[in-house]
Amino acid sequence: MSNWLTDGIAAAVSKVEAQASRGGDFPHITQDGKWCTTPDGVWTGGFWAGLLWLSYEVQKSDALRTAATSLTDRLLPRAADAINHDLGFMFYPSAVKGWRITGDDRYLRAALTAAESLAGQFNPQGGFIPGWGFFGSEDWSGSVLIDTLMNLPLLVWAANHGGDARLLEVVHRHAKTALANHQREDGSVFHVYRFNPADGTPIAGDTYQGLDAASAWSRGQGWALAGFAMLADMTGSQEYLTAALRVARYVERHLPQDGVPPWDYSAGGTPVKDSSAGAITAYGFIRLWELTTDARHLDLAETMLQALCSRCLLRDDSAPILAHATADLPHGLGIDESTIYGDYYFLKSLLALRDIKDQRESGARGSFVQTSAG
Ligand code: GLY
């Protein structure tokens, strides 16, 4: 096993243990290197609970299990959120994972409720789940964020665990809308696409966190790559696989030599990075490798993760795991800081890569490798 990989996992898990021992609310993004926390987990609470579950699986310590349980429990009332397109982010890494580990029926029921709440936001005229309700005093009911794709695996999971079959219809209709409108000729995706919410007429591509409407916001490319790859895996759709491969080729063509994405691939030569985009994209490449067994996907994942370990992993006693993430540059939030989603996908990807390497080394690889990616 590569040293950088085992070192990276150990460093990440030890930071999660240290943060868990401090207790407190949900880490979100940092300001001047210190976590800004939220009492209810805003849209990111699932990633902190998820990091605790992942670390518990590595260390099997009672303290981590207690923290993971407590933070997951605190999220459960959010399952009924009526305007929240991030319910997949909030409940898949936390409640679904916690249910798989503990068998706690409360987690199963909360995740199923969250899936219903997410699907309940579907606009049947438009064929999409809108990004937000009102946000920044603006009506977002006709705005669809690429990020939402990565929330849809919760619906597929729920449909396979006693949820209504209509959940799958929502997945396919939303994904079809994203395929038709968000993805461009060159394989990249718009961050936002605006529609007339009354009848679903497409208006135009746009952005909120990217450079401009036509740009390729790097985290959005990561959400699209990983989201389409997961949905392809979970539903068997060739169309989603093709979409994921097209985003993958775009990223491959635009990834800088140092292996860490800029905050926006169109921001030519910018020194501002987004390590969270690197972690999410690496996860997408791992999922693509599982679907295709094409070695170039695994090589890209490895290159990106190795770059994060050497350039962004915080090896001091600070609380976050990855430096050089950018949450929202246009609005001046979390520039060259840390994010809990970057930290989560970093550890998730490292563990998935470790499992792949372990299975290869033990010669146990069959036609499909079951990793911790699921
Ligand atoms: N889903 C919001 C973001 O990636 O910042």
What is the CATH topology classification name?
Answer: Glycosyltransferase
Separation of termini?
22 Å
Shape: globular
The biggest beta sheet, please?
A: 3 strands, antiparallel
In the CATH scheme, the class would be Mainly Alpha
Percentage of residues in DSSP E strands: 5-15%
Structural class call reads: mainly alpha
Number of helices: 12
What brief labels describe this structure?
374 residues, mainly alpha, Glycosyltransferase, three-stranded antiparallel sheet, 12 helices, 7 strands, 7% strand, binds glycine
Structure characterization notes:
It is a single chain. With 374 residues, this protein is mainly alpha-helical. It has one domain: Glycosyltransferase (Alpha/alpha barrel). 52% of the residues lie in helices and 7% in strands. It contains twelve helices and seven strands. It has helices spanning 3-22, 45-59, 62-75, 87-102, 105-119, 153-159, 166-181, 218-235, 238-254, 275-292, 295-311, 340-361; strands at 26-31, 34-38, 134-135, 138-139, 143-145, 192-195, 202-206. A three-stranded antiparallel beta sheet has the order 5-6-7, with no helix packed on it. Strands 1-2 form a two-stranded antiparallel sheet. Helix 1 (3-22) crosses helix 12 and helix 9 crosses helix 10 (275-292). The longest helix has 22 residues, at 340-361. It starts with a helix and ends in a 13-residue tail after the last helix. The relative contact order is 0.12. The structure holds glycine. Residues 147, 209, 219, 327 line the site of glycine.
